Amino acid sequence: MRGVLNLLLFFLGVFAAACCGSENSTEEVLEEFYSGGGEGSSRHTNNWAVLVSTSRFWFNYRHMANVLSMYRTVKRLGIPDSQIILMLSDDVSCNPRNTFPGTVYNNADRALDLYGDNIEVDYRGYEVTVENFIRLLTDRWDPDTPRSKRLLTDDRSNIFIYMTGHGGNEFLKFQDADEIGSFDLADAFEQMWEKRRYNEILFMIDTCQANTMYSKFYSPNILAVGSSEIEENSYSHHADQDVGVAVIDRFTYYNLEFLESIDKSSKQTMADLFASYNPKDIHSNPGIRSDLFKKDLKDVLITDFFGNIQDVHVDNAKSSILSLTKSSHENEIIEAKSEGIDLTSAKPVPSTAGQDANPKPHSNDLHIQSLDENDQKGLKGFFVAGSAVTLACIWLASSFY
Fold first, then answer.
1. Prediction pTM value
2. What is the pLDDT of residue 365?
3. What is the residue range of the signal peptide feature (predicted)?
4. N or C: which end of the chain has fewer CB within 10 A?
């Protein structure tokens, strides 16, 4: 019954479009109906980021730096804090062994404090668990869970998920207390797809044997990338001698090196980012899985996942908007007076010119204007479509008896 209704509404839409003088041909309507907007087109309307450091303790300083580096990059490219979920142990900045208290750096030159005063940590310390991570993805929360701790996505959301920590063949450890497996992650993504919680997902993971973590994915519209193949380690880039530990991982470092070279208006694509990977620099073989992703990576902008771009057209007029408004109002008054209307009193003023027996209506009269050709065509299409819906409902109702 539901299929009959959907088919009826579809043909009704095609018929109504034809009656209303739509610019799209019937063939274009059919193509859009079956293709969902066409290959390579981006249909998302909002962007989210889920950034997870699954480690704790001082010697895992680099994992917290990895996540905070990605956090800074997606904010710079336009994703607001309200649409970023940040999960980290947060035990490094104020660790007694930190030579520079209250700071986290990702480079030995310490030019940029990643921690700073402008970060919002949503899950901190022992809140970073496998259970909370799965609940976050699938939105299985108690009613009293605050909105700031929830991933409030829909079927038009592009989600960037970044994870880093210690892992192995098809598992990733959470703070040396628990672990998440590749099947757990795959099933969580399938629940998200069934519940219409995403449009597309970019999954990026930096850990030992990272590529095994996306090997079990089976849900559509997921693009996955990892730092190392099975039986390969993921290596740190360099250490800060004053801090005493490594400050960033290689795979994350070279991703950031590319991402920091673009801005919100960049036309660089995911294919460009992946082409920049050099196993000799990374010291492992990054993996890319795109078989679940429908689009050509050359058509997918980096900002489709790492940014949040709104298509806004700005007028280049140099005049003040107030002066333009004033000039427009003055012209309206002059035009109205020439037609015998006093806008200041909202009453007709006497005119020395001869009065027409049937004066033409103008914009200030409260008269219904005659419909132009397009309005008539649209109204005709509306009545035709309404009649068709009524007849369809009568037919469906009579079919039950």
1. 0.71
2. 43
3. 1-16
4. C
**CA gyration radius, the chain:** 30
Residue type, 357: A
pLDDT tens digit sequence for 89-137: 989 988 999 999 999 999 999 999 999 878 999 999 999 999 999 999 9
Tell me the CA distances in angstroms from 9 to 6, 107, 243, 379, 393, one per residue in order.
Answer: 5, 59, 65, 19, 11
Q: What percent of the chain has pLDDT over 70?
A: 66
| Active-site option among 166, 237, 238, 367 | 166
Q: Are residues 53 and 172 in contact, defined by beta-carbon separation less than 8 angstroms?
A: no
Q: Which one of 3.40.50.1460, 3.40.50.2300, 3.30.450.20, 3.30.1490.20 gives the CATH number of domain 46-306?
A: 3.40.50.1460
Tokens 């989210």 correspond to: 48
Residue closest to 257 by CA, chosen among 54, 70, 110? 70
What DSSP string describes 19-74? Answer: HTT-SS-HHHHHHHHHHTS-TT-----EEEEEEEE---SGGGHHHHHHHHHHHHHH
CA 300 to CA 92: how far, in whole Å?
Answer: 36
8 against 104, higher pLDDT: 104
Q: What gap in Å lies between CA 346 and CA 71, rounded to an integer?
A: 58
Q: Per residue in 32-65, pLDDT tens?
A: 443 444 444 568 899 999 999 999 999 999 999 9
Measured distance CA(283)–CA(208) in Å, rounded: 12
Q: 113: burial class by Cβ within 10 Å (0-12, 13-18, 19+)?
A: middle
Retrieve residue 389's tokens: 């819906």
Q: Which of 63, 208, 238, 313 is catalytic?
A: 208
Amino acid type, 287: G
The residues, ordered by sequence, that sit 6+ positions from 224 with a Cβ below 8 Å of its Cβ are 202, 203, 204, 205, 214, 217, 288, 289, 290, 292
Cβ atoms of 224 and 218 closer than 8 Å: no
Let me know: does 188 contact 52? Beta carbons within 8 Å: no
Does the annotation mark 208 as catalytic? yes
> How buried is residue 185: exposed, middle or buried, by Cβ count under 10 Å (0-12/13-18/19+)?
buried
Q: Token pair of 392, please?
A: 């369809």
Answer yes or no: 166 catalytic: yes
Characterize the bridge pairing of strands 157-164 and 200-206: parallel
| Domain spans of the chain, in order of start | 46-306
